[in-house]
């Protein structure tokens, strides 16, 4: 059984992402694990050298576990109240561990069955720093797992129109195949979008795009795949426009170093995109 890992700091944004994950898991017949990172109250260069008093750890651990259990019960009851009795009901488990959010997520994602990390796009405290600061760049660059970022007010309604932004990298084909498996139960339309810098069209550009899409159609078993190329001076503006004009339900991208899409793990670019879009962002590792 597939499991979606959902880190939470118990903020409204994290709760919304967890709720999104539960209903996505229901449709994909997966389970959900809520997790919380127990860390020192103050982050500092010497924090790793500080030893917690045992009573403080026990108190924080107990408090976190109680909050996680309450959340799991709440989401399970919500899901059951709007579902048929014979439908899939995701098993919602919980866990808390000592460490930074980054360390805890990277540890738990190695557990058997974990296929996706689902997190709020912004939140209070550590989750906000995880996504929009150096921790997010570290996890996306080194974590090696797909991460689904959920805007704070986005409600799960399935997927009808999905876009995959590509620079025609070879490993994008595998990511498109993985994305197709996620959206297949929804019969969503999948558009592969190649955003290119403005300039003179070169003959090899069309040949490269044709070769890429030929490999996609031969490799990915999905009938509703289209291709579209966009030329833009500013990638941020192009993606924002794409999200707004095409009424997308999901935008996916592969993160690679030295790619035009490294904007995704730049704090300033991520914050700008997050403010202007209300669609989930799915980041695959490069």
Automatic annotation (TrEMBL):
Q: Which residue windows are coiled coil?
A: none
Q: Which residues cross the membrane?
A: none
The record's listing under InterPro entries reads: Rossmann-like_a/b/a_fold, Universal_stress_UspA, UspA
Q: Which domain of life is it from?
A: Bacteria
Residue intervals of the UspA domain:
1-151, 159-285
Q: Which family does it belong to?
A: Belongs to the universal stress protein A family.
What name goes with this protein? Universal stress protein
Q: Which organism is it from?
A: Mucilaginibacter straminoryzae
